Structures
1.
Amino acid sequence: MIWFLATEDQLSSELATHIIQQVLPAASIAQDLGQTGNGKLKADLQAGKFTKLAKLNPVFLLTDLDQAECAPTLRKAWLQANAAPNNLLFRIAVREAEAWLMADTVAFTKFTGIGKGKIPRDLESVRNPKELMPKASPSYNAVLCNFVQTQWNAERAAENAPSLQRAMERVRGVG
Amino acid sequence: MLITKLVLKNWRNFREAEIHLRDCSYLVGANATGKSNLLDAFRFLRDLSKSKGGGLQYAVADRGGMQKLRCLHARGKTNVSIEVHMAEDFDQEPMWVYRLDFKKADHKHAPLQVSHESIRKNGDELFCRPNPDDLKDPQLLTQTHLEQIGANAKFREVVDLFGQITYLHLIPHLLKNEALSRSGKVDDDPFGQGFLERIAHTPAKTRDARLRRIQGSLKVAVPNFSELRFHKDESTGAPHLEACYEHHRPHGAWQREDQFSDGTLRLLGILWSLLDGDGVLLIEEPELSLNAEVVKQIPALIANIQFKSKKRRQVIVTTHSDALLSNEGIDTYGISILAATSDGTKVERWSKKEQDVLDAGFTVAQAVLPRIKPVNVNQLSLF
């Protein structure tokens, strides 16, 4: 089965790749049809492109909740009256993909040198997880992508991030 | 007449390649996959078909000899081969098929030789070489029939089609610097000053009409741009382009081309070339120096000019621009993807999974570009 990704940016793309690979080691991943921000992602979704593609191949769509009220409201706003087909996994990181990163506290603290005590226990209640991350620089994305590829563990992170847990269950369901 | 298909063997970094062409074709590939080498096969055809200052020996020597021209991946003493299919329209059986194979001579300093040359018209072979004359006088095999006015009368149409192939790769730095431009060679391809000369040689009425059209487009794309005109310097006789920008001054300010921005010059070059002549036009990376929003419009701009022209000019574009390929109106049948392999570059069409993506309504950029993106490119910043 060939999976397509639909994410906001490179870091989310790296996370989505890692999640699918960890849950379904035999799955092959084609390409990310997003990576140009969530505006384009939403527009492509509302134009029915992902729905159409999902009839043939599973699509893992990942976006940040950001400051929206909650995941169901965001999903409703994006999908409008349409229902997502089974193979279109519309997943929302609460509130940002960075929370999923930090949720693997073992790897994250080791990688960044940030003390364990500085990472909130309930990461999904943090309004703006990016603020907890190391200071942004032009190589911010590259460094974090490298972290995901080499050290981050989705299973471990899922213990501290229910939205990630649910995303992984859905991936397992398709496989 | 259009070129519908090109088949190459052992040409530069292509061991074998087959390219299908449309009104507007896009050769998409990462850096160093040979996009320019592929365009050069078309320029080679043009150089071949010139009776003056052209021909096989010249065209090969001009490219640094067989050593540089023949594919590094080729094995043994192999031929370089080019086959061109031409028709009045796409989806038609070819009206003409021209094929040329050539190889190094057996002796070190002897000129290279045609090992096969043939042309077919509607399936019938007009000639096929080597023929008995060639066997009697092997010297004849140092030239193609394409370059000989005496021999090409029956397929002059093909010779003219090749002869009109134009390559556009305007280098603003060269155009702005007259001395630099003159030191390099100025021939059929406008890189620098040659472009201004091309404009100068156009009859005044046609030239003014074209510049007016270009002015309209530049007004949209270039902030504060208002007017464009041709001007011949009275003392030196040198041709110049001048543009007026709206300023705080009531009458604006006129500037010469050496003060234009690189992007303005590049766009001007693309627009002029699209309007100029009706032969095949090769455009090298039109995205260079231009704003992404402008680049996004280039496919539509080409299609529009083709549609409005009496004779549509066939266009072949090399690109790796996300913005350009995200135009939703691109004819996907004109897309060729250059993929580097350990056995030279392969030219491919989209795969089944890319077809699924295109069918779902996504753009060519979304469907095809991920394939040519270097793996782990973000790690470049961790240098």
Note: Chain B has a mean pLDDT of 90.
2.
Amino acid sequence: MKEIITLAHGAGGKAMESLIQHVFVPAFHGVEHAVLEDQARISLRLLAEHGDRLAFTTDSYVVDPLFFPGGDIGMLAVNGTINDLAVGGAMPLYMSCAMVLEEGLPIETLQRVVDSMAEAAKAAQVNIVTGDTKVVPRGQCDKLYINTTGIGVIDSGVQISSQRARSGDVIIVNGSIGDHGAAIVSARADLKLEASIRSDTQSLSELVQIMLRACPDIHCMRDATRGGVAAVLNELADASQCTMYVNEKSIPISSDVRGVCEILGFDPLYLANEGKLIAVVPEPVAELVLGAMRQHPSGAGSAIIGQVVDQQGSAVVMETQFGAKRVINRLVGEQFPRIC
Amino acid sequence: MKYIDEFRDPGQARVLVQCIAKLADQIASLRSAPLQIMEFCGGHTHTIFRYGIEQVLPKSIELVHGPGCPVCVLPREAVDRCVALAERPGVIMTTFGDAMRVPGSRKNLLQAKAEGADVRMVYSPLDALSIARNTPDKEVVFFALGFETTMPSTALTLQQAHDERLQNFSMLCNHVTTPPVLTEILQDNQLQLDGFIAPGHVAMIIGEQPFQFVACDYGKPLVISGFEPVDVLQAMLMLLTQIHQGRSQVENQYLRIVRQSGNTSAQMALCDVFDIGEKVTIRDRYARFDAMVRFAGHCHSEALPVSISEPSYCAEVLKGRIRPLQCPLFGKHCSPGDPQSALMVSSEGACAAYYQYGKAEAMA
């Protein structure tokens, strides 16, 4: 019989202990300590070796389907939190993992997700050091939700901030946009699209460290998750009160993503990414940063997509291929497929 | 992407814009008022804004944005009826994504869903049919809307439901056809339009003939156009050529898709299922799939609180009498986040397009 999650697995008794010992501990080596105590303990001296500020972030992950081309919810939960730390210039170091499981979830599914988290954490050299599990009755959550909280340390020379975009700065993206959003839409069972789009979920930690070595004075950096590149550009323009021009032609978009967008009437600028960042760097070092990014697999498709043109109020303007200009606003609500 | 990139080629577009400018100059020297061209379809409006076509056209051409957007022509009462049905226990309401945001008098479908109604977004009416098959204990209703572009899939779905003798599927029909809406615009004395860019995907179904009355009875040139920027520019050039030569004809720019006679199998399906006059209704043969019949008494607007009338400016914008920016509600009391009407909802609605892309005009 297939082993499934029952309410007992969240009740604090033997079943829960067994789940922790058989599923979580072998995958997350770092949790051994926290299982014995009630918390992970991290040496301050060790942290201080990496810089002078602690970066601390949390995010919850709910995605349907759990497994999709190019990744799964576990990979997202690790990479997403790592990326939130990384784009602040932090070296991601430790992470927690809390899960809400739906009664009836096959343990095999949980195992796949946990293994995937372990692999992603290992690849990014991050330790998952503490965690929690809750089980809710069937129907009260959709299979499995994950929360991860991460801490990292920012080097003393790094001052990345959304408020630092300056006139003349160059806007860079590390590759094609919209892949994750398009992959999820294509993978949904109700939409039988035959597209070979894979999610771009990946850790950006190494790439960011390479970028910071090329230019410690990167002005702004954000990962373009929900709301896509359009949302990030608007957030940066708002925070820095600047006008950004982006060039439609130079934004990398794969032909498969463009195809899905054509069919559904989506704009790739608003599609979610899970391994893409937008960096705003001083013009004199832009080519240097770009060159360094392209040396790394996570940045092989990097491109300069625009420039900050002035600091007199917030706006994001796209120069279309036809030489016209249009404003890129934030998305209101969700993108819905068009009718005809 | 094949068949798309060619029609977005900036080089081609530049050449067309130059030809348009030359011709527009010649026409402008013969008249005092600017040329008013209506793009009927919201899909064209979207292309025009997305690529900034208005900015590259000569000032002597004014584009008037037409009413051809499926949700924009949806009356509030239709949404009210749909919400009333969706809120009935045991009903699964299905519809296209865009339709979920259109405001009704009290609420839209998204709000009804948040309050507990079972409202599901589908990509095709056939998806609604499979929901009906899989949940025989529920009444599955499809909220059908749109012009001739979505009508064939609705018709085929009803035919299939009929063949399968499905007992729990029905449709709330809110389809409209293009010619009566065009007629209404043409009969409006306040509009002095010089020509029309007509929707290629509608013509793909109905063919060229149903547009002939625009040229024959009203003496206005009309060009059926595709939806890529080069398509729209080429259609514009064809229209200007007609105006320059004093011709009023129906011409087809979208030759790669539109056949003169349209799609006859689709037309047969439409004819079988719908009674198409001023309004589109479901034929008696399919009456048991008509939600208005099936739920008679439960989806009438009498049962609802008095409808708050639609802001009167919407009709003016829909007919192209005023531009969205001339509406006093625009951007202040009406925005995509808090829309007062469907025009602000769909990406193909003129107001939403102005809101989304329009500010650049002011900056350019």
Note: The two ends of chain A are 47 Å apart (CA to CA).
3.
Amino acid sequence: MSGAGRIGEEAPARQIVVPLRHPWTWLASAVVVLIAGLVLYSVATNPAFEWPVVAQYMLDQQILIGLSRTLELTLVAMAIGLVIGTLLAMMRLSSNRLLSTLSWLYIWFFRSVPVLVQLIFWYNFGALYATISIGIPFGPTLYSASTNAMITPLFAALAGLGLAQAAYTAEVIRGGIASVPHGQARAARALGMRPMLIFRRIVFPQAMRVIIPPVGNEVISMVKNTSLVSVIALAELLYTAQLIYARTYETIPLLIVASLWYLIIVSLLSAGQHVLERKYRQR
Amino acid sequence: MGLDSVEPMVKIRGLRKSYGGREILRGIDLDVPTGSVMCIIGPSGSGKSTLLSCINHLERIDGGRLWVGGELVGYREHKAKLYELPERQVARMRQKVGMVFQQFNLFPHMTALQNIIEAPIQVKRVPPDQARRRAMELLERVGLASRHAMFPAQLSGGEQQRVAIARALAMDPQLMLFDEPTSALDPELVGEVLDVMKDLARSGMTMVVVTHELAFAREVGDALTFMDAGLVVERGDPRSVLSAPKEQRTQNFLSRVL
């Protein structure tokens, strides 16, 4: 015989174990469900939400173009952020003090100034430099163009979102690389591997495990951050909705259309991130 | 053994190394003849691991000269000055020198087999099929052929260290460096790693082994070096150094560890 109870004390054949009851939890749950139900009922029945209008615009041509522009901005700005961010991270980790300080300055600046301000700044770049020229310093000019012609809203949007993203991504990548134990690079060097090969085959794949989850979060933030671009009149999802309701005065239903699309994209991306995270989890 | 008989595999003269103003190696002279096993013992902080890392230039040196296979390691000599070589050229030299670490340092994102074929394929451009066949032979030799698809985290410490030895051997080195290869192992796993090393020594591999395993040094070592405070204090035949040390510091150390 083993188990609980005094030695020699026989346990009954079928024991009934009653766990501690939590009556207040049940009551609180009931209250929450009731409130949620009331809110849903009100949302569904309040005519001001104009659900038929929402349904009408959900797959509207203009909205879909705005949506694709949002996705495009997310993709390209993230790509810019990743490429420049990786370079910044490598500079930051470099033993060259000048490179590492430059990278620190970049990260400090672009993380400190709000992205919204950066966007407006890029949009108004023409006020700072009227023309952009390529040439030999203090020598002949090879090419010159008006800044306003070059810096379109799209250019300003990508510069604003991408350059700021690079600063955030750089820190994430730096953290990932720093998380790989020093002995890994030592072992690889001892095998005769060269620095670039060590980075590509040994350090980076291990850093990815640490980098992927936060970068996934950054992509999701970026989807939402692209809505900031509406202030420089670039017709992404939110600005498209604004253009339509400025004409039809159906403000709330169009904001709901935009919100539903953001919800859908973010949900899909979250699912994708979950799959990636599982793939990179260490065995 | 005369210092200037046949060209030794490793030749070290007046080696110095400092970290942040503190001298770790204070003028080391050492010869490791080709095909012999040199064991290095000494208290922690005596500089023995640093010495090992200088032999394949994982650490820069601050003075002296160091040759492996007759080739100056890590530097080019010009008008009595040493110029450090670019990493690319040092990497080529390191292919000839295998190294085994206290903490194994297997690549955790690769299986045992992938760990072994990585450098032959990426560095030596060995065709993958051939590299895989050779890796399986080496795994067979260290008794782990059935574990080839396992990741390091799925292997015991002793198994990881044996894979690490196979990984180093896959580059066909002329010299093997062992940096306290059994110090991180549970006592019951030490034997299997030492057995692989004994087998390697019998096959004629030149080995430099930093170790605390005095029985191994006595049985397998052709020579024993005792280091303390960055200097070689005593060297000679392992049996005579271990049983009848001449220097006071060697006697003190041995009385503490035996």
Note: Chain B touches chain A at residues 56, 58, 87-88, 91-95, 97-99, 101, 103, 105-109, 118-119, 122-124, 151, 153-154, 164, 167-168, 171 (CB under 8 Å).
4.
Amino acid sequence: MSTDTTLLADHVCLITVGDAAALDRRESIAGEQLRDALLSTSDDDDVKAIILAGLTTGRFAGLVGPQDAHPGTRASYSGTRGLHQVVTYCKKVVIAEVDGQVGPTASALCLAADFVVSTSQSTFASPFSVPEANYPLAVLTMRANRTKAWMFRGGELDARSAYEAGFVNELVPGKSLRQATTDLGRRVALMPLDGLTVSKMNIGAAFDVIGVGREFDATEASVAAGGASW
Amino acid sequence: MVSGQGVHAELADAPHVGRIVIDRPDHGNAFTLDMCRQFVAALATLEADDYVKVIVVCGNGPDLTVGLDPEEVGTYHDRVDVPAERIPSLRARLRAAGEIFWGRDGLYGRLLTSQKVTVLAANGRCHDVGLDLALFCDIAVAGSGAEFANPRWQHVGVDGDVSMLLATVGRKRANELMFAAARWTPEQALSAGLVNIVVEVPDASAAALEVARTVSTIMRDGIAAEKYLTLAATEKMGIGAGFATATIMSAMSSTIHFRPGEFNFLRARRDLGVAGALAAAEQAKSLT
């Protein structure tokens, strides 16, 4: 798997995931590559918005359980500098761009992202089969009843339902998808860098008040102990 | 107070209903800092009146409010009793943000903890302060031409409280207002949970008064108990802690530096005057 990073417009960066299925297989290298790309991009003062593309996998083949996962999984996916927390607490605005079938790990990354822009034929696998899917964050995004329904019933959410639930911000035709995410990134980039940084800190503080950080800590401990089983 | 120059309290034309009127229509009901304090005073007056059970908040004219007066944006720390310095100290900025907006006796702190039921009539532009009034009043009724936004955020970032916004409309929808300069129609606001009712006419005042009449049939002790229960729930959700964060973030956002190419409203106001700065701000929002 390779992760590409390119500048799409002034202050708008595109990160393309080479093989999203590798994330569902919890391959350490896949998680680390994407995490490192996000970290280095978010540390770049010339970047204000990050578009995350290549999140679709085709039909979901099944998650790898923790007993089969690479020993580096905890660090690359679960920890403070793991992929999911890096997206959730990213210093820059993260826009997930979706066109197709989204597997559970990418779905959890969509949950963590600030925006999701999707084509109307896309589908989202339940993120809750991934240990790092953050329940308080999901409740803050979709409300409690919808979150519980998705969590306990599993299954895919079609794009229209995801939009109505507040999981997706915008539905666009496939041919307009890149333009829509780029325009959204450019609009975000109109905010001064200092203001954007303060805004993201402000939101991160609100997350922690409602327990998003504690949930991540609990997940990390659970993954470390091999507590989650499939 | 001279009518048309501030915020005042009055009794509405319904039993047990008071009204707070934002009354500066020739400026789109833009809030001066004095008006923030007048709002708090008006609220205190009506709260002290045991006859009043419900308070309708409304604007005079087509708009609820266009937000903070652009003449005064960036100057609020000059109004606190902290020794003046060429560059206001952090403690002056913190104290101002707390006293005027986010502290226990600030505009939003007092509205959040009001012991009366508050009903907002959201007409026309409900920008900036208007968006926060929709969040912190108990019930919001929107007219058909209402528009909810905070255009100021695009120039300085999201200052103030975000916890209530996140809790009310959901995280990703909140991001549209915070980062994408969204301007919500009444229907979008209804779908997101920001308002409770949308009426088919531009003026929501009559519908808001009707809601207030219904609420006023509840006995006083019941209203007081329910308000305390909602306050307890709000505290459990961390909104109170959010206000402390809001004070810090408001103060921090008044110290931001602008990089080359970023629009600086305060500099534009100094160079171009208020009207020129507002026009430049509109221009700066264009993606072309």
Note: The first helix of chain B runs from residue 33 to 47.
